[in-house]
Amino acid sequence: MTATRFLDAAPVPFWLDDPRRPQPREAHHGVGHADLVVVGGGFTGLWAALRALERDPGRRVVLLEADRLASSASGRNGGFCVASITHGDANGRARWPAEMPLLRRLGDQSFAELLDSIDRHGIDCDLEATGELTVAVAPWQADELAAESAELDAAGVAHTFLDEDAIGAEIASPLACAGILEEHGAVMVNPAKLAWGLADAIEQLGGVIHERSPVRDIDRRGSTIVVATSDGTLAARQVVVATAAFPALVKRTAGRVVPVYDYVLMTEPLDRDELESIGWRHRRGIGDGGNQFHYLRLTTDDRILFGGYEAVYRFNQKVDPRFDQDPAIFATLEQHFDAMFPTLAGVRFSHRWGGAIDTSTRFAASTTLSHRGQVATVNGFTGLGVGASRFFASTALDLLDGLDTEATRLEMITRAPVPFPPEPIRFLGIEATRRAIAAADANEGRRGPWLQLLDRLGLGFDS
Ligand SMILES: Cc1cc2nc3c(=O)[nH]c(=O)nc-3n(C[C@H](O)[C@H](O)[C@H](O)COP(=O)(O)OP(=O)(O)OC[C@H]3O[C@@H](n4cnc5c(N)ncnc54)[C@H](O)[C@@H]3O)c2cc1C
After folding, report:
1. Is position 386 within any domain?
2. Which three-class secondary structure state does DSSP give residue 109?
3. Which residues pair with 378 in a beta bridge?
4. What pTM was computed for the model?
5. What is the rounded CA–CA span in Å between residue 331 and residue 288?
6. Residue 449 belongs to what domain range?
């Protein structure tokens, strides 16, 4: 059947389409100074500002956001807030096997502190401690999940493998045939409300936030870093650049990430019968086991957020609002939604949107010092930054302050990721990889020669 229900949905992110969205803070004008300037008002920038103020309450911290707070990925994501700082355990094991026990511990610690911060600052972000469920939607995925379960067992990572009979107690879908349940280390949030709450906490601690204040240039003059906005300057001792998939402000970090677009549909609230028909009683956040994977979750008012599968990079792509909508991808998502939940084939969609992910070749973020150690750039979360942003923001502050910590010594921090090549090789390489990933999914997960080569080189493309 042709997918057309998505056409009636509002073409805006559900989370930002909220009467509680705060009025924009005043833009930055004129000449000023600060101890720390943070560039970017998504989760990374917000955590950097908040952590700096918590560590040193006397510090003068100014955050500059080009558009509105959380207007980009941080207000457009699925709201899966997870402990992993390595884009999942399997990616961490493949890249940093020796450090994985430490990476798991640091991720768990940062996640616990994140939950504590939300609590301590009284941030209402509709948090639901649901845990996370990976669902096999094809028999070959069930085999892969069984193998992954054995790896997690060997590493001592708490989880439960659910076979074909057990998965039915979590979700009623004709596609679901096995699963891995991780009850701890994942919560669902309303990401926009989390971002707005963090901004309030920053201001309560004396930080200053300016929206609609794009930074044009960052320069070192003497021992001062001069941050130029469209309408003024700020002289600072230290700067954190947290601009994700947007054009690099620091030359050294150019090519470290590419903007990859990911798309989401949101349904209208389900009624009791509709909810019962899909048996989603524990409300876990769900990802499926494909290489091109979907993610789905319930909201507090019982809508289903259904996103993922296609991760799109267009030739020479920059972050641009015209990519926020893609009818062909929404049509595919609607068809996949109906296949997952045939009992909901009449449910309407209320919102549809896309957003830019800062994809890196190693799928995990990095933190880079420049300007003689006075500027730290953080990016590269590759679709899993809601929770991890706090860890990398804190580590950026450690690096700026010259601290020697378990985090600053990590190979993931001391070694820069391999950059993407320039165009047109970048586009051709990413397209070849996207096609190879789709072919692997169609071929029972078997990775062809191109993906095997990338695996050997430790490179890849993901969302
Ligand atoms: C559709 C989608 C679904 C996702 N789902 C999940 C999920 O469920 N769980 C998860 O963990 N992650 C998810 N992610 C990824 C997650 O949203 C990001 O990793 C995270 O929000 C990154 O935060 P950030 O602050 O680094 O980037 P952003 O939120 O992109 O913030 C960067 C900010 O910098 C500003 N900026 C850029 N240039 C300048 C400049 N020159 N001057 C001033 N400001 C500037 C931008 O306007 C922007 O607000 C998803 C992403 C998308 C797009």
Report:
1. no
2. helix
3. 367
4. 0.97
5. 19
6. 425-457
